[in-house]
Amino acid sequence: MPKQDPTPNNLTEVMKSAGIRPGPAAGEAVGHFGINIAKDGTWLHHGTPIRRTALCKLFATVLRRADDGTFWLVTPAERGQIDVEDAPFTAVEMAADGTGGVQVLRFRTNLDHLVEAGADHPIRVQLDDETGEPRP
After folding, report:
1. How far apart are CA 12 and CA 9, in angstroms?
2. Which among 85, 83, 79 is positioned nearest to 22, based on CA atoms?
């Protein structure tokens, strides 16, 4: 029988198989998962890069941002906080269709999500505190 892809409903088992111990029993807030998303988009567990892209993609499907700006991995069974240095995803490719006022910009993220710039996904540019360079 072919191996099934992990789903958010079995996140605990996927995390355990990757050596990540999520914490207490199902349904409880487990505190902090020890996961960090670096400024460059790298997902880390206790400082070590998570090299399985499929695992990062799975985590991204259950990533939520709370009203207070904190980030959480949330499943029907459990939830745990993670740290995000800048933004959870980085754009690695852009395509432009049309011209002028009808131009549409589409971005592919480091986890292969396709996002169209607009009211729901505005483009913002900030100056990097360390370098002074503009950072979209």
Report:
1. 8
2. 79
Q: How far is CA 113 from CA 57, 58, 64, 89, 90, in A?
A: 9, 12, 15, 9, 10
For 22-64, how does the pLDDT look when each residue is reduced to its tens digit (9 = 90+)?
Answer: 544 444 667 888 999 998 899 999 999 999 999 999 999 999 9
> Does 3 fall in a domain?
no
Task: Tell me: do 22 and 69 sit in the same domain.
Answer: yes
- 6 contacts 14 by C-beta, under 8 angstroms: yes
Tell me what the mean pLDDT of segment 15-20 comes to. Answer: 64
CB 12 within 8 A of CB 62: no
Same domain, 68 and 125: no
Half-sphere exposure of 3 (CA within 13 A, CB side): 3
